[in-house]
Write a structure and sequence with these properties.
five-stranded mixed sheet, 39% strand
């Protein structure tokens, strides 16, 4: 089973809103019950720390707290005639194939320093990532980079009025802090980031 969502649909439902295309493949058990759903998403890539900073609504140094606060399912607007908001729009009644749900895990992080945006030091913010375990089914994103508990990061976030913030993309939206408190890139991320870079592009010492 395959599900595709447009980027606008992802934004509207507050999925990982940077995703240009999202599809889901379902694995089944011997009994035919779905056990694992793997999402495949395409994200915009960035070639410099400056471009990441420009695109992000909020850039903060923050520490992810303990366990995720919740896992939830997001559903399309089935009343809409817009196929970007409702994948079943236009299908004859009763003939729309049921889609795998889109599931997100929501984390909390405490803001330590603000480089861009309206966040405040000491504020707790919520951050969503695609995937999670819900109702006995594991939903996972291919090539995912889940946030780690009790870990400090520099985060490049896209924000929404009524939903948790999302990383610009799973690979480049997060820079874990090393033992000295300096940002370090994930191995597959081609864009390095230093404390001096943050000072230069944010204008904050």
């Amino acid at each position: 089973m395959m599900m595709r969502l447009s980027r606008r649909f992802a934004v509207t439902l507050a999925l990982v809103a940077s995703a240009a295309t999202l599809s889901a493949c379902s694995g089944t058990s011997a009994s035919g019950e779905h056990k694992t759903v793997t999402y495949h998403a395409d994200y915009p890539a960035y070639d410099s720390a400056g471009n990441l900073f420009t695109k992000a609504d909020v850039v903060v140094e923050a520490t992810v707290s303990g366990n995720p606060v919740r896992v939830q399912e997001l559903k399309p607007d089935t009343t809409s005639d817009d196929p970007k908001l409702n994948p079943a729009a236009g299908a004859p009644a009763g003939q729309a194939a049921p889609a795998d749900p889109v599931v997100i895990t929501v984390y909390q992080a405490e803001v330590k320093k603000v480089f861009k945006g309206s966040a405040q030091p000491g504020q707790m913010i919520e951050i969503q990532q695609l995937g999670g375990q819900l109702n006995g089914v594991t939903y996972q994103e291919a090539e995912a980079h889940p946030l780690k508990q009790n870990t400090g990061y520099v985060l490049f976030l896209e924000t929404y009025p009524d939903a948790p913030a999302a990383l610009l993309n799973p690979l480049q939206g997060q820079y874990p802090l090393d033992a000295a408190g300096n940002p370090s890139k994930l191995p597959e991320n081609p864009v390095a980031l230093t404390a001096d870079d943050l000072k230069r592009i944010s204008g904050i010492n």
